[in-house]
Amino acid sequence: MLNDAVAPEIVPAAGSDKDAPLKEDIRLLGRLLGDVLREQEGDAVFNVVETIRQTSVRFRREADAGAALELDAMLKELSREQTISVVRAFSYFSHLANIAEDQHHIRRRRAHLLAGSSAQKGSVSFALKKLRMAGVPRKTVDTFFQDALIAPVLTAHPTEVQRKSILDAEHDIARLLAERDLPQTPKERQANLQLLRSRVSTLWQTRMLRYSKLTVADEIENALSYYRITFLRELPGLYDDIEDDIAAEYPNGDGTIVPINAAYVQMGSWIGGDRDGNPNVNAGTMQHALARHATTILDFYLDEVHALGAELSVSTLMVGVSAELQALADQSPDASPHRSDEPYRRALIGIYARLAATARALGATNILRKEVGAAAPYPDAAAFVTDLRTIVASLESHHGAALVRPRLATLARAADIFGFHLASLDMRQTSDVHERVLADLFAQSGVAADYTSLSEEDKQALLLSELAQPRLLYSPYIAYATETDSELAILRAARDIRQRYGARAIRNYIISHTETVSDLLEVLLLQKETGLLRTDWKAGGDGDSSCELMVIPLFETIPDLQRAAGIMSEVMALPLVKQLIAKQGQLQEVMLGYSDSNKDGGFLTSNWELYKAELALVSDFQKAGVKLRLFHGRGGTVGRGGGPSYEAILAQPPGTVNGQIRLTEQGEIIASKFSNAEIGRRNLELLVAATLEASLAPQAANPAHASELAQFEAVMAQLSDLAYHAYRHLVYETPGFTEYFFSATPIAEIAELNLGSRPASRKANQRIEDLRAIPWGFSWGQCRLLLPGWFGFGSAIEAWIKQADGAAQDDRIATLRAMYAEWPFFATLLSNMDMVLAKTDLAIASRYAELVADQGLRERIYKRITDEHGNTLRCLELITGNTERLAGNPLLARSIQNRFAYLDPLNHLQVELIKRNRALSSASKVDERVHRGIQLSINGVAAGLRNTG
């Protein structure tokens, strides 16, 4: 791991030459880390790390039981100081290996492009080629891009273990590593190596963990760093590439490119607006979030306009300009005679002055370059775009088209996408809070003494009656509950933010735990109380009502998903809601929760209930004449709805995409996808390509296919029922399981880690029901069982096959194989589970089981888990025919196989440290070094597991 002599162990000896650069990069980074370790900590520590590494490799590769005993004995003998150094060494190796792998993915993609393979699977060009060959006309493609909305939404969840300082250092290492693929002189290569060594040294000397609780403001800044790294430049650049791809695949007669004047990919955020279970989010955090959003995007615009001013030195002595451009130049505060013949520069100086004034008006406090003179702020981003397009039009009509594309067109595109708000901030709160707030308002106003005790029918009647009233419930002269004042203040802040930053700044209000129609009506009434909803409606449906925030139900648990379509059908039939949906362009969004449904019902049932809910929603929305937009609350891990986004979108039921999709990017996955600009761009392209293909690719519609699909769905329903009972029986009905979980995973230690501003549990107890789904899945990943990603599958398949007799069992096996071969939903489900099982390790998990003090409980539950694991492997192999994990993805299989030899020591150390920590806790003692070692190991394991951490 740490020097040239042993570096070949890091990557497989077998494989084609195309993996050689990856081997070289890991060898280089491993050697540099070893040099730094020896220099900073001394030869003794270096030798301890090397011995542990070699023993772990022997244990992993040779299944050497003696090596396991040696490793255990070595780890127990480590001093506290040695333990920290060893944990840090293996953690940083995981981080450096990730950087090398990312760079190799970029390298391989470029190799394909250089070979002329631009239409790779997952690219927009590939999707366009597929659509053209299927007979989809250019007009349909153009309409798609004009009407589409594809929105990744960044969220802060308590599994993001990276500090921004660490991310910045790693970003530099990735950049320097990429430079080594370019031609370099010996002196340049040596300079590059010295810089790499310095960055690795910086990494080693930088505190990996936060020693104070992460605030919402910290989470906002962390998220904004990805805009600077990736989104601000790569998203507009992707638009340019897509226009080129369309022109290449669907050329016009004259060869010109028709620009798409629509922001079909937009960014969203929950950070600062998501209050569900987070008492740290309030009106102030929302206002702070938008101020920081605006500052970030305006800083970018100011830098780009300044650069354009230097580039566009065009003189009217050489070429003419449009009247509109000349007028823009004449409005500039720049009166320098040196630029009297340079109208583009004068115009840009005026634009810069207006942007600087806008930035100050919107909360920016530090504008690095002072403007030449005073100017009025822009009223909105559209006015800024108009000025930029004036420059574009003048250049294009006066022999300057070549000057547009490098920077100006991209800036204009960015202004279309990001406005002055950067990203739309979603608001989210749980339905219980809305009910309590309205109960307070109703009681204080004398309208209803006990709203919460009313039946659902009576609640709806009361809410609709109040929505029709011209007066408000709220009075400034009454003392309300603190929660009531806070929630109303948040909605008033949303109204002010929209007026200040534009309508796209906040436009969605998500209701967690939506269970009834009244849950949606309550939020409409709260909007009316705060000036966000204006009602003018009659029972017959006449009137002119409008609502500033779309009210979006979030269906999370299995029962919620089963009720989703019925609730939406009922609410869309209400006259007032019909009016509001019409004002929304006959569009309504529904959010589906993945992680909570998984925690509630298990992997198989969660996926099936989501699939069924989507189909039912599509049907009911079509009947109502309303366009459905689904918001997928996907997480990072498979157990949280994660896995490859491209395959997941293509596996959606027919009719559920239609050019409209939002999906969350959660926690640690944001760094994995977007901390490298080129990989970030590729991930954004995958979203667009999958949405395009899922929306426009013709669906097979022959009767045989339809009947076969119906058979598959019927089988899936039976499997889901069997898997649900197996999962629920273990997690919620087995005596002692909760004790086992809290003992055999590092959940207690994760709750103490300064990962995010949100508590790990909704309530201060040890009930799995109240534990948030994110740390639930994160804990299972740390102990290498990853139980939420597979448990219940084996029991379901085995039981379903055994329900038949004799030859009929063979028929059932054949049906399962057909489902895998022909049904994208089932194939994607098994592919994701295959990946999870490849990362599951029972030998490591058994070490964590030893943390359970009650031997009988430990053996009883661990045996059930391992038995189910064996069943799941056998059943997966029976269906797919693959006896090896990740047979279809050998690159990932090699990565996992070789990475885990270096991840194992972290798990072994984590177990040892947890034992020490819990022994100290039982004696009412605290050892900060032990505590710190556990937290460092959590960071390292999460980095090593990546999308299943």
TrEMBL record:
GO molecular function, one term: phosphoenolpyruvate carboxylase activity
Enzyme Commission number: 4.1.1.31
Uppermost EC category: lyase
Gene3D superfamilies reported for this sequence: Phosphoenolpyruvate/pyruvate domain
Catalyzed reaction equations: oxaloacetate + phosphate = phosphoenolpyruvate + hydrogencarbonate
PROSITE patterns with a match to the protein in the record: PEPCASE_1 (PS00781), PEPCASE_2 (PS00393)
Entry keyword Flavoprotein: no
Keyword field contains Lipoprotein: no
Pfam family, one: PEPcase
Keyword field: Carbon dioxide fixation, Lyase, Magnesium
Residues annotated as the enzyme's active site: H157, K599
InterPro entries named in the record: PEP_COase, PEP_COase_bac/pln-type, PEP_COase_Lys_AS, PEPCASE_His_AS, Pyrv/PenolPyrv_kinase-like_dom
Cofactors required: Mg(2+)
Protein family according to the UniProt entry: Belongs to the PEPCase type 1 family.
Quaternary data: Homotetramer.
The protein's role, per its UniProt record: Forms oxaloacetate, a four-carbon dicarboxylic acid source for the tricarboxylic acid cycle.
PANTHER family documented for this protein: PHOSPHOENOLPYRUVATE CARBOXYLASE
Record protein name field: Phosphoenolpyruvate carboxylase
Gene: ppc
